[in-house]
Every structure is written in structure tokens, then in C-alpha cells.
């Protein structure tokens, strides 16, 4: 059990860009990158990994994953959307992210939708997800505690990737529902 708790600590699972971390002032791209680097550096797998790059942000903008930027400055709403994209991109394709966020972008841009309230709800769900993940991981670890160290590691990897695939498939199915509802309306 000690190994799994140590792993959970090393993963820095509670690292999340909160509403309070995002300045009220609009930021230039380099400042957005610095904000993400400062927050997420502790979560990088390798030292040389980049958290966010100009190319990534430009690709998100070209792909219309968020509403257009004005005067090369990113608003608090842009940064919240980039943060959501940052979290989703590890699991979903850029196309699926665009489908997921398309209506939200229109709402923010056209209807004066209060994205901050949604983002705060997203933060709360993220905190709950971390707690559930830790609990599930500890349960899984206890189920395989009798095994040899390598076999435990292998079973943990196989089980975690299986669960990841289950969650990804469920997320993709919901994206498909969003796309279907968009076609129907």
C-alpha cells in the first residue's frame, strides 16, 4: 500500500489551473505559456517535455477550439478553455474536443455565458475525480498485493490502461451524442 500512496503523491494529481490562478488581465501568448508552465511543470513526465507551446495554441486557434482572440490577447475565458483543452487532449482527438467545446464557444461569444461558473464546477468535479481515482487505485493495489513486485506493476499498468480505455470510450460516445444533437437542431 505504501508504494501506491507514494505514486499518488508523485503524480501531483491535485495540480489544476484554478480560476484564482488566472489573472483578470488579458495575456499575450507568451504569458499564457508561462502561466501553464508555472502551474504544470511538476506534472511533466520528463524534464524536456513542454506543457504548452505557441504551436499548440496556434493549432487550437486554427482548429477553432476556442473563440477568436482579439489583438493577440487571451482573455480569462480563453485561458479557461485552453485549460480544458489541455486536460482533454490526452484522451480525445482534436476533432472530438472541437465537437465538445463548439456550442460552449458560441455561448460564451454570443450569449454572454458565464464560463467562470462552469469552470469552477469543472474544478470541483476534478477534485472529486482525484479522490475517486486515489480510492480506486488503492483498492486495485490491495487486490494484487499478494503478487511479486513486477507482476503487481504489470497488473497495475494493464488495469489502469483498461480503465483509461473504458473512460475514453464513454467520453467518445458522449461526444458522438453532442454531434448528433447538433445535427438534429
TrEMBL record:
InterPro entries in the record: DUF1836
Alphabetical list of Pfam families matching this protein: DUF1836
Name this protein carries in UniProt: DUF1836 domain-containing protein
Species in which this protein is naturally found: Oceanobacillus piezotolerans
Amino acid at each position: 500500500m505504501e508504494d501506491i500512496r507514494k505514486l499518488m503523491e508523485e503524480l501531483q494529481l491535485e495540480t489544476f489551473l484554478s480560476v484564482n490562478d488566472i489573472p483578470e488581465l488579458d495575456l499575450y501568448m507568451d504569458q499564457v505559456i508561462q502561466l501553464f508552465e508555472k502551474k504544470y511543470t511538476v506534472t511533466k513526465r520528463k524534464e524536456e517535455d513542454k506543457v504548452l507551446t505557441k504551436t499548440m495554441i496556434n493549432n487550437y486557434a486554427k482548429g477553432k477550439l476556442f473563440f477568436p482572440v482579439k489583438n493577440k490577447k487571451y482573455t480569462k475565458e480563453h485561458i479557461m478553455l485552453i485549460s480544458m483543452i489541455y486536460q482533454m487532449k490526452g484522451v480525445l482527438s482534436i476533432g472530438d474536443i472541437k465537437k465538445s467545446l463548439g456550442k460552449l464557444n458560441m455561448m460564451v461569444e454570443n450569449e454572454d455565458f458565464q464560463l467562470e461558473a462552469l469552470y469552477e464546477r469543472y474544478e470541483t468535479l476534478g477534485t472529486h475525480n482525484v479522490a475517486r481515482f486515489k480510492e480506486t487505485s488503492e483498492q486495485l493495489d490491495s487486490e494484487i498485493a499478494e503478487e511479486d513486485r513486477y507482476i503487481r506493476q504489470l497488473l497495475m499498468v494493464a488495469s489502469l490502461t483498461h480503465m483509461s480505455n473504458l473512460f475514453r470510450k464513454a467520453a467518445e460516445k458522449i461526444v458522438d451524442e453532442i454531434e448528433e444533437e447538433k445535427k438534429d437542431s
